[in-house]
Amino acid sequence: MRIAIITVAGISNRFNHGVKDKVLKAIYYEGDPRRTLLFRQCRQCRDMDRIILVGGYQYEALSSYVERIIEEQVQRRILLVRNEHYEDWSSGYSLHRGLETAFQLCDSNNDEIVFLEGDLALDAPSLAVVMEKNLDVITFNKETIDSSKSVVVYEDGDGEYRYVFSREHGLLQIDRPFRRIWNSGQVWKFRDMEKLKAADAKFLDEAITGTNLEIIQRYFDGMSQDKICVLPFRFWVNCNKREDWRYLDRQNFWEAIA
Q1: What is the DSSP letter of 58?
Q2: Residue 48 in contact with residue 1, Cβ under 8 Å?
């Protein structure tokens, strides 16, 4: 079973800042309703057996969009899941809700899960490489690391991969020596379901209001490098603001929807 989890539950504060008509960022469009982050990600995941969408903010609008706009051959692979804590807890609970559903579908040692944060614009060839790898995958992009918005991944002196992120979008600090450092691509592939279940269980016990990195870090802790592939995205935009969406428009990103 090959499963994609896409989380789109957040309230899109920065995307809706100063705007009267609030929208769910993942389904925002101007003109053609297919020109959305969600449409592109679902299209890029169309070869997965299941696509789990975790919503929360404007959940009914999300459900309606999937029913009206997403193509039938993709739509039948989609499972919608609601995060009831999208306002008071952080992104970790959205990933947990997606994993909770995925674990009900997994039934063999060959299962794998690809997790994508729902505010990303990605090039399809790079994402296809992530999906095809027979290893766990950590991704990075080639943008400058900016503490106000970046998720940092680095390889420490023991050869383990560690993440740093500021929930307040403030300064970042790394407290240990490191060999390499990247701006995270915020897409991951998990192939060890038992280890992933254990990471999710620890999250529920110890950090239920934390970010999705609480689960991801627990999963990769102690994992040997020969099981992990670190892959780049050729094109990557974290669509935080409406100007980011318009930048994608100027780059003709939405035209490549076939």
Answers
A1: B
A2: no
Cβ pair 163, 213 in contact under 8 A = yes
Fold of 2-133+186-209+235-255: Spore Coat Polysaccharide Biosynthesis Protein SpsA; Chain A (3.90.550)
Task: Please state the domain extents for the chain.
Answer: 2-133+186-209+235-255
Q: What string of DSSP letters covers 87-107?
A: TTS-HHHHHHHHHHHHHHH--
Q: Which of 85, 114, 90 is nearest to 165 (CA)?
A: 90
**C-alpha 210 chain-centroid distance:** 15
Residues facing residue 53 across a β-bridge: 6, 80
Q: Give pLDDT tens digits for 43-94.
A: 999 999 999 999 999 999 999 999 999 999 999 999 999 999 999 999 999 9
